[in-house]
Design brief:
Blueprint lengths: L2 E7 L6 H6 L6 E3 L5 E5 L2 E8 L2 E7 L4 H8 L6 H9 L3 H9 L10 H10 L5 H15 L2 E4 L2 E4 L4 H4 L4 H6 L6 H12 L5 H6 L3 H8 L7 H10 L11 H12 L9 H12 L3 H14 L1
Antiparallel strand pairs: 1-5, 2-3, 3-4, 4-5, 6-7
Helix pairs in contact: 4-15, 5-12, 11-12
This protein binds a DNA duplex (13 and 12 nucleotides) through helix 6, helix 12 and helix 13.
DNA sequence: ACCCAGGGTCGTC
DNA sequence: GACGACCCTGGG
């Protein structure tokens, strides 16, 4: 495949640091010059911001502009979304100022399911390391710009790994969950197609919860980061913390029920709860 | 050396 | 519904 370039001009809501460091993805890494390189599906890309231009460069299956338009959600008006959310209260306004260039990536469903099962009770550096090792061992090699990159393995390839193989890659207690979930897909007890075509958020969540290693939080992340359900509100330790600090003010944040936070998010942020969650998460975690 | 926490889930009570 | 266990790693 040949290298392609696409330059996006005058895009206000696009800041590589915000997009790649807000916790939605695990396969993008910062380069010396401040740009980011990553792999998604069979594409290898470098993203660089210069003045008010975004330069996408790399090797893609198909036209790079179309690939980027889809993956980076370029047809959505984030300025409008931010304006709506900013009006809700000053906390949100502040968080949006902080992460003004966040966009929700359109990530591969299979990769997102496996990645967020791995994320359970884990930290971001380690999650990234595990996914790298899985890709190196079970994915396909792509050479680009003098370096080797590896695609995230499809379910047939990952299905070759035994529980012990996975444990050896450092998955810890998540080894069995990955093994079982992969097996469920391979045996067609559930399919990516049925998940992708399910319009109703509640019905979709029910299906995701049947997978091993997928609970409330992971299901919400899968729906938000891959299936574009912006009305869900994934609650992790950071979001629980920020919601308690800002609105609930309980002495021990762990005593606050998930239900209470869910209701609060729904009431305040409505169908944009997922976006609000990302701005708040990034704001609280970085600052 | 020790302890703690990290984008939680699962089995058990 | 609550509670502890769970692999592993980096940081205090």
């Amino acid at each position: 495949m040949k290298e392609q370039t696409y330059i996006l001009e005058n895009c206000n809501s696009f800041e590589p640091v915000h997009i790649f460091e807000c916790g939605q993805c695990f396969r993008w890494n910062k380069e010396e010059n401040g740009s980011y390189s990553g792999v998604f599906k069979n594409n290898v890309l470098n993203v660089k911001k210069e003045d008010n231009k975004i330069i996408f460069k790399g090797i893609c299956e198909g036209d790079i502009e179309e690939v980027c338009r889809d993956y980076f959600d370029l047809d959505r008006d984030y300025e409008e979304i931010k304006l709506k959310l900013s009006k809700i209260d000053n906390y949100l306004k502040e968080s949006i100022k902080y992460g003004s260039g966040i966009r929700i990536l359109n990530q591969d469903l299979w990769e997102t399911i496996i990645s967020f099962i791995i994320s359970a009770n884990n930290n971001i550096p380690r999650i990234k390391g595990i996914i790298d090792r899985i890709s190196k061992k079970y994915g396909n090699k792509i050479e680009y710009s003098g370096r080797e990159y590896y695609t995230f393995p499809d379910m047939e390839s990952l299905g070759k790994a035994s529980v012990e193989d996975l444990r050896a890659l450092g998955l810890g207690f998540r080894d069995k969950r990955i093994y079982e979930t992969t097996k469920m897909f391979l045996e067609k007890k559930i399919t990516l197609e049925e998940l992708e075509s399910e319009i109703d958020t509640e019905a979709l969540k029910e299906k995701l919860l049947t997978l091993s290693g997928v609970g409330e939080k992971v299901a919400d992340c899968i729906m938000l980061f891959s299936l574009k359900k912006f009305n869900v509100f994934p609650i992790d330790v950071w979001v629980r913390r920020v919601m308690n600090d800002l609105y609930i003010k309980e002495e021990d944040e762990n005593k606050v029920s998930k239900k209470l936070i869910q209701n609060l998010a729904k009431e305040k942020y409505k169908d944009l709860a997922g976006l609000a969650q990302q701005y708040l998460f990034y704001w609280k975690r970085e600052a």
